[in-house]
Amino acid sequence: MIRFGPLAIAAAMSLAACSSCEQKAPPPPAEKAASAHADASLHDGGDGAAKTASLTDAPWNILLITVDSLRADMPWAGYERPIAPRLSALHAKSTRYTRAYSTSSYTSKSLAGLLTGRYPSELSRTGVFFTRYLTKTDFVCTAFGSAGVPCVGGHAHAYFGPKQSGFEHGFSDWRIVKGITFDYQTDPYVTSDKLTPLAIEMLGEVASKQGTQGPKPFLAWFHYMDPHDEYKTHAESPHFGKRARDLYDEEVFFTDQWIGKLLDFVDAQPWAARTIVVVTADHGEAFGEHGMTRHAHEVWEELVHVPLFFYVPGRAARTIDEPRGHVDLAPTFAALLGVSVELPGASLVAELDGAPAPARDVVVDLPEDEYNERRRALVHGTTKIIAFGNDVRYSLFDLAADPQEKQDLWRSRPELAADMKARYKAASARIRDVAPAGGIPKHDR
Predict the structure, then answer these.
(1) pLDDT class of 323 with cuts at 50, 70, 90
(2) Are 268 and 316 within one domain?
(3) Residue 444: its pLDDT value, please?
(4) 336 and 420 both lie in a single domain
(5) CATH code of 381's domain
(6) 196 shares its domain with 106
(7) Residue 8 included in any domain
(8) Of 7, 88, 105, 242, which is the most buried if we count CB atoms within 10 A?
(9) Number of structural domains, the chain?
(10) What pTM value is reported for the model?
(11) Measured distance between the N- and C-terminal CA atoms of the chain, rounded to whole angstroms
């Protein structure tokens, strides 16, 4: 039962939209950093050369905002509750991908793919659930830093702490919200209200440093945790009920408000005109679909279909319906930052620049570890094949007719099954499987 009516929800949305009134931003970076771009805005779409020049004519700053467990069915995709007004407003001005896929179905594996441009099975890593990645040069920020482009990151879970995940490889400034400890079962903290001030502080510092000798690009990444279970209620959010999805929606609304404050800060900076904002999720979240709750273990749509959109100052909004995967983000970032890096994924810059978006298959990769059996999936157009274990059995779905993957076509469509299996086998063979260091601990799964 919704405890706040439509007027209360509208009032809450209005409060979120002007939430920056209370935020005290640190002093802006040196005027020299980006004075030529000072008239652009996250809200007015920007102005000037970016409208006509190619995106690769000059390097851009990148602000990457990831939200843990953020499902694809947000308000901009038709969800009836207005739980993300600030992100919805940004989405409306962005190049948005309606069929984006995370690399895997939980944080340890999915973010590794995003940060390296490779599948987690290909990376030097441990075999535990909270995986640590061992090779610094696998991570694109190592190459960015060597090219003089700093990466900074702020996070709100102890798994991101030093010597835990390895995600910090290549980052020149890496910070964790204070006062949190590692919980192996859930996320018991409220942190969006702490992460945004940290992000503002870090952005101010890196922009100032990069602007001391003329504008130079940077990449900043902030990962918001609050939609991850356990789901909490917030005084600032509309209250939708007591079910898990109701509380999750409150968490999304709360997080959205604090992301809005971060966007307001960026909007006020002279470097906003050269800053691309990228929003996505590490994975989705299940609320009873396929008998599951939370995430990991499988690669169903509710777990791996995620939001993805790019706000590019001066560019018109655009919708792209072709499937795309997170392994494409690292080469995209490299091209936008003006850094040459050889990666297996495909840069999205041409289609962000307005070119047609070519059809391309997407692979999802969940390697085996102590609590996960291996899963892989391939999406070709609107058809999806899932391989269970070491390809011991398969399922096949028509996502256009059956987006919730309820009708397995593996036996009823043998010709389609054979074609999709061949596609999957060819794509899977291109993934160079690396055995986890120290082996895989054995537990009941």
Answers:
(1) very high
(2) yes
(3) 66
(4) no
(5) 3.30.1120.10
(6) yes
(7) no
(8) 105
(9) 2
(10) 0.87
(11) 36
Same-domain status, 107 and 232: yes
Mean pLDDT for the chain? 87
**pLDDT tens for each residue of 24-71:** 333 333 333 333 333 344 544 444 333 457 898 889 999 999 999 999
Tell me, yes or no, whether 307 and 345 share the same domain.
yes
Q: What is the 3-state secondary structure (H, E, C) of the chain?
A: CCCCCHHHHHHHHHHHHCHHHHCCCCCCCCHHHCHHHCCCCCCCCCCHHHHCCCCCCCCCEEEEEEECCCCCCCHHHCCCCCCCHHHHHHHHCCEEECCEECCCCCHHHHHHHHHHCCCHHHCCEECCCCCCECCHHHCHHHHHHHCCCCEEEEECCHHHCCCCCCCCCCCCEEEECCCCCCCCCCCCCCCHHHHHHHHHHHHHHHHHHHCECECCCCEEEEEECCCCCCCCCCCCCCCCCCCHHHHHHHHHHHHHHHHHHHHHHHHCCCCHHHEEEEEEECCCCEECHHHCEECCCCCCHHHHEECEEEECCCCCCEEECCCEEHHHHHHHHHHHHCCCCCCCCCCCHHHHCCCCCCCCCEEEEECCCCCCCCEEEEEECCEEEEEECCCCEEEEEECCCCCCCCCCCCCCCHHHHHHHHHHHHHHHHCCCCCCCECCCCCCCC
Q: Which whole number is the average pLDDT over 287-303? A: 87
User: Given 299, 331, 356, which residue is the final one in a domain?
Assistant: 356
279 and 130 inside one domain? yes
The predicted structure's pLDDT at residue 16: 38
Measured CA to CA, the distance from residue 74 to residue 86 in angstroms comes to 12
- The domain in which residue 183 lies consists of 58-356
Per-residue pLDDT of 357-411, as tens digits, reads 999 999 999 999 888 899 999 999 999 999 999 999 999 999 999 999 999 999 9
pLDDT at 158: 84
